[in-house]
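I am writing to request your help with a piece of structural work I have in hand. A protein sequence and the C-alpha cells that stand for its backbone fold form the material at issue. Please examine both parts with care and let me know of anything in them that strikes you as inconsistent. The record follows directly beneath this note.
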Amino acid sequence: MSDDWIYFVPKSPRHVPSKKETKAALNLLEEMMPDADEVEIVRTEGIQFFNCGGNFQSVACPHCRAALDLDWWGRTMSSDYDEKTGFRLKKRKMPCCSKFLPCFSKFASLDELIYDFHQAFGCFAFSVMNPNIGEMSEDAVKKIEMAMGCEVSIVYKHM
C-alpha cells in the first residue's frame, strides 16, 4: 500500500511561525483535511530537505532552465549537508551556465533550483499524511499562508 503526504514549508528556509500562528494553521489544516491519517508539526534545529518521494522527475537550473545532471545534484546535496546543522544552502556555480561562458557564471543554492515535482528546504513544516483531497486550491493555500504568517511551498510526496 502506498501513502501520500502534503508538506507546507515556509518559503524562507529558516522561518518558524510563532506559537499562535502554528496553532491557528494546525487547526485550519485539521479542519480542511478531516479525513487525513495524521497532521504533524515538523521542527528541526537545522534545515532539512522535504522531498516529493516517488513523484520526483527532474531538477533544473533557475537561470537557464537546463536539466541538471542528477549525479552532480546528488554530490552537491551531499557536500552541502552537515550532520549537526543540516543544509547550509551555499550558493554554487551552476554547471550549465558556466560551461560555455565562464565569465558569465551563474550561482544558485539548492533551494533555488527548479524541482519537478516541487521540493523544499526548511526547519519547519506541517506534514499531512493521506489527506485525501488531491491538489490544494489557490484559495486554500492563501488561507494557510495567512494562518502561518508567511508564504509557503507545497510539496506533494508519494511513497
Notes: Residues 58-116 form one domain. The radius of gyration is 17 Å. Residues 62 and 113 are 5 Å apart (CA to CA).
